[in-house]
Structures are given as structure tokens and as C-alpha cells.
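> forwarded from #structure-qc
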């Protein structure tokens, strides 16, 4: 893996652990020569993961819609900042630039980004690993709900297994490196999205 997209909150949350782990993730990516692709802001966990990368002389590429430049203050120290027109263009660009995705704690935007990427994987539009760094059990309820979707017949077991989860950065990166996408028929083509 040469580039990983990280989706996370533009705030720090209520526990210092979130910021600490976001920073550590950034530092770990840089030390392993993995380029960060993220939302381009210098605030919250977004800023923390980028600062972690930059503190270890790593490469950090931000992708930020023009209309968010004033709300999510653009990080000025990045290796590269790519400005796009829309949120959909942002996600598409971030997908194009990465070999995998890690999700950290966040709100609606983070979940929307995560679900679109895992849905694209389910449809066979990409074969990249999608991983959750489950800091302090933040995503425990979501992981249980995914199991409920399987139990109630709305999600196949093989698609549940596509989701990689750990609370340990090194273990999560190891799972991502060893990930083999399930063989699924493509329901639609890349041109269809």
C-alpha cells in the first residue's frame, strides 16, 4: 500500500484518545512510507492525522471542496492540496488516489464517506480494503448493527467480512495488507456511478 485515505471528524471529540490515536496513525503511515490522502483540513482529527504524517516528514495530500475552504480551514503545510467542486468529486478523487481506506471517529460526514466506499466495494467497483480503527470502542454499536443486517437478511456474510476492524494501528495495517476482496459479480461498471 502506497496511499491510504483516512476519513475522520473535523472535531476532536470528547476524549483526548481520539486525537492521540489520529496523530499516531499519521506518524505510523509516514514511518511506513504510506502517503496520506484525506479531506484537507487542519482542524479536528483531520488536522491531527495530517500533522502526525508531517511530523515524520511523510506525504499528506488533502482533497477539499471549494465551499468548505472557509469552514474546514485548509491545511497550509500539506504536500499537496487539491481543490474540487463537490463532495462527490472529493470522494471520487480520494478513491482514485488511494490503495485502501481507514475510518476514524467522526460524525455524519465520516459515516457517509465510509458507507459509500464500502458500498462501492460491495458492488465490485474496487477491491481496496476498508478498515475501521475502532478507538476506545467508538464503532462497537455500528459493528453490532452490521451483524444485525446480516442476521435479518439485508447483508451477506461475505460483505460483512469485507469490513476490517481493530483498535490497534499495526494490526489494522496488517489486515489491510493481507486483504483479499471477495469475488463478486459487478452489478454496475465504474462508468455507471
Amino acid at each position: 500500500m502506497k496511499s491510504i485515505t483516512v476519513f475522520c471528524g473535523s472535531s476532536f471529540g470528547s476524549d483526548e484518545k481520539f486525537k492521540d490515536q489520529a496523530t499516531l496513525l499519521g506518524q505510523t503511515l509516514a514511518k511506513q512510507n504510506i502517503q496520506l490522502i484525506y479531506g484537507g483540513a487542519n482542524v479536528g482529527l483531520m488536522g491531527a492525522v495530517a500533522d502526525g504524517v508531517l511530523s515524520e516528514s511523510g506525504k499528506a495530500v488533502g482533497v477539499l471542496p471549494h465551499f468548505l475552504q472557509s469552514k474546514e480551514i485548509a491545511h497550509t503545510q500539506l504536500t499537496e492540496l487539491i481543490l474540487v467542486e463537490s463532495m462527490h468529486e472529493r470522494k471520487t478523487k480520494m478513491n482514485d488516489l488511494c490503495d485502501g481506506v481507514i475510518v476514524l471517529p467522526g460524525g455524519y460526514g465520516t459515516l457517509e464517506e465510509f458507507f459509500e466506499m464500502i458500498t462501492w466495494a460491495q458492488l465490485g467497483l474496487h477491491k481496496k480494503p476498508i478498515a475501521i480503527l475502532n478507538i476506545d470502542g467508538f464503532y462497537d454499536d455500528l459493528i453490532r448493527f452490521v451483524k444485525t443486517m446480516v442476521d435479518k437478511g439485508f447483508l451477506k456474510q461475505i460483505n460483512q467480512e469485507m469490513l476490517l476492524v481493530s483498535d490497534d494501528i499495526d494490526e489494522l495495517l496488517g489486515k489491510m495488507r493481507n486483504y483479499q476482496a471477495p469475488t463478486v459479480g459487478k452489478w454496475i461498471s465504474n462508468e455507471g456511478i
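QC bot note: The chain has a mean pLDDT of 93. The chain has seven helices and seven strands.
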